[in-house]
Amino acid sequence: MRGRYWIVLAAVPAALLSADVVYWRIASDRLRGGLQDWIAAQRSQGWEIDSAPAALSGWPRSAGVTLPSLHMRHTGSGLPGAFEWASSGLVLSVPLYLPTDVDVSFRGPQHLRIGTAPETVVTGEALAAAVPLGEDAPASFTLHATGLRVQPAAGPWQVTAGLLDARAALSGRGASQGIAFSARAEAIELPIGFRWALGRTISSVSAEGRLNGPFPDGGDIAAQARSWRDNGGSLEVSHLAMGWGPLGLNSSATLALDDQLQPMGSGSARAVGYADTLDRLAAAGMLTKSAATAAKAVLSLLAGTSDTDEPPEVDVPLTLQYRTLSMRQVPLVRLPELDWPAR
Questions:
Q1: How far are the Cα atoms of 51, 67, 156, 190, 257 from residue 48, in angstroms, in the given order?
Q2: What CA–CA distance (Å, rounded) separates 34 from 92?
Q3: How many helices (H) and strands (E) does the chain have?
Q4: What is the pLDDT of residues 190-235, one digit of tens each?
Q5: CA distance readout (Å), 330 to 255, 278, 336
Q6: Are 258 and 264 in contact (CB under 8 A)?
Q7: Cβ within 8 Å of residue 122, ≥6 positions away
Q8: Are 200 and 189 in contact (CB under 8 A)?
Q9: pTM exceeding 0.70
């Protein structure tokens, strides 16, 4: 009798373990099937995709699929245009119990090429993304990276960031379609060898806003941009904050495209350290000395006086028209022309 008791005690955990393995295998197979369906759908939309055979992984904590390599290429005239991504490894996983998101972990270097730009290599101490599960789940995407490094495949310079968090979510249809976005980055180091007027280190930058549609299908990128503009497309930046050298900035703006497909719009900014910032920009040749002097005079009047030792803050309206950024009719800087590729 006692022997049967011990057999039962041993059989129960073994049965539970076997059931867990079977459940993991079923969930992992479904995840692998979903990945294969996604690849087939992208191929039907003009993508060229090559990948190594997927292997199941993740037990006992999650259902997972490991791809040793993935290469995606798009050469069509529509969005995203010429685009190429080669990954040294991907791991897709979902929790075995109460799964809500598909987590994607990027392993090794990620090679990107957009348009005619040089190939770029992206690496990080941790580089991961998440996509909600289910047909009724919101169409969104989140990205998290630490120790991020971006550099050309052939070139000495690099940009690094200690932290990057970003999120984008698609909502609405037709005229009300749009993409809400937010992003935050800290400890950004700009490339050595360039003259940065405000220094190489950007302590922090964050942004929130919404890109309003509708987003057209078909045609080259310039035609799609024109259609987006003609149907009321706009970019609303509800919040933009930056700490860069002497400059502390909080701003908001609404932007669109003019008849030449160049950015135009208006906004407002609250700036700290503006005098030192303007002096540095003028010394670096990014502003003329006369523009910097005029801007400082206007900002000093707007800022007024303060009884504290803190640097003065100022709220100022900004406009962007005909590629010229102006502050209260005072031209600050002329932006380079945005060249839309024909394909």
A1: 10, 17, 30, 34, 32
A2: 11
A3: 4, 20
A4: 998 888 999 999 999 999 999 998 877 766 778 888 888 998 899 9
A5: 19, 13, 18
A6: yes
A7: 109, 110, 111, 112, 148, 149, 150
A8: yes
A9: yes
